[in-house]
Amino acid sequence: MSTDQCYLIVPASGIGSRMNAGIPKQYLMLDNGLNILDQTLKALLSIDQIKGFVVALAEHDMHFKESQFAHHTKLLALATGGEQRYHSVINALHTLKPFVKDSDWILVHDAARPCIDPADVVKLINQLKHNSVGGLLATKVVDTIKQADKNLTIATIDRSTLWQAQTPQMYRFDVLLNALTSACDDKINITDEASAIEHMGMQSLLVESSKRNLKITNPEDLALANFYLTNQLT
Hints:
The protein has helices spanning 36-44, 85-96, 118-128, 173-185, 193-199, 219-230; strands spanning 6-12, 50-57, 75-80, 105-108, 134-140, 145-149, 152-157, 163-172, 205-208.
């Protein structure tokens, strides 16, 4: 039985400008009475395999101290958010370093994905536990995908090999820190942890997840998230 432990990083320092709200989107309230970040943490911290977590916050964040998770027994530390999401993750990894060993697993999850199904995360953990690198939750692309130039179609892309990446993305601590640091040093456009892993010439295992695990980006996403949370499968 592996002694490698699982730890969680939630980058939560963005402002979510496309939501047109007066506060960062992760603090917008859901219909169930929790804000988006707290709902996300509630779902993930129900997973026994996750032994501790770090949240990366904006330097002058005044909201998280009111969270029910601000004094949670699994909260190891708070990290300072960076200019880009991956900077926040790097900062969180350095903050987490005293608590973990190189082979431990780090799950990075978007604060704005409150509909994550804990069962999907457990499936991810179980499928990766003997993997040397890591992987991520994702869904297969089902729509016809068009390549375009100035809103004019150029080609139809073969969707049979396409997946839509989600989070959590789960990697061994040393693998993830080295990959993110290298991509940052090389000024690579890092849109998720997997893209940094790819830059290092490594592959990630894709674990199929639910489409309900949406990322709240626009106001209509908030309404859909409320629908999913109100109509959760039992």
